[in-house]
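Q: What would this chain look like folded?
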Amino acid sequence: MHNFLPFAYFQNQFLPFNEAKISIATHALHYGTGAFGGLRAIPDPQKPEQILLFRLDRHCQRLSSSAKLLQYDLPADKIEKIIVDFVQKNQIDKSCYIRPFVYNSGLGISPRLHKIEKDFFVYGLELGDYLSPEGVSCRISSWYRQEDRSLPLRGKISGAYITSSLAKTEAVESGFDEAILLNTQGKISEASGMNVFIVRGGKLITPGFNQDILEGITRDSIITIAKDLGIETIERPVDRTELLIADEVFLSGTAAKISPVKKLESYELPKTRPITNQLQEKLVAITENREPEYKDWVYAIPKEG
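A: My prediction, written as structure tokens:
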């Protein structure tokens, strides 16, 4: 049961969430011609009168880029203003997840991006931990991550998430929490909605963009934080067997934050995770606006505009 925020932004206006409706003939519903973002909003632990958004500018830039892939010109600054207004309108007082979505809103039956109406909406829901902070179990999915030559993976295109859905359900129904997908070259790509990191010999390693991954904003943040902490960070192809012998494995994403992997298929992974824990603590401190050197990553919104 989800607790949705009371107001949505829909068809250029704010209205009650339950009144934001689309037609059953909507193009994006049939063909996956949409793209979405996702960001967390949390009450400021130090100043309860304001709400904090993590890397709002990057989230808006990425969604604007995703919209371009759908031939939709939606400037990042317009998205940002609407999200700020959305947060103030809903008077958020709990940790929430905000979902902005761009899509083909026309009612045609031809699969296309040209000469069809586009639109943009925003809604949100209360969200605590998406995955257990104590650690999750994963399996290698039988489904493969798509290739950029067949689907624009630089954007969060909604149609691409059928593979994520298949992989997630396969994992859960076979007794695991999460799935890790290989790419078509047999290398580690990503989880169902998260990037993958491993630690070996004190070095942080993660698949690069050439491994058909999403350009994760939390991923980018972790790489920057790790380098600032003096942790050697390498972006390169990762083999399946490397996960089995890694010192630490974790997943990252806006919803998942940093989620340790405690088990991979039948292999138990180390319970001691010094680098994962260090990165977790630092990321939480940054999102709560307790790290002055990362202040430009946090956007503070007064509860009343």
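The mean pLDDT is 96.
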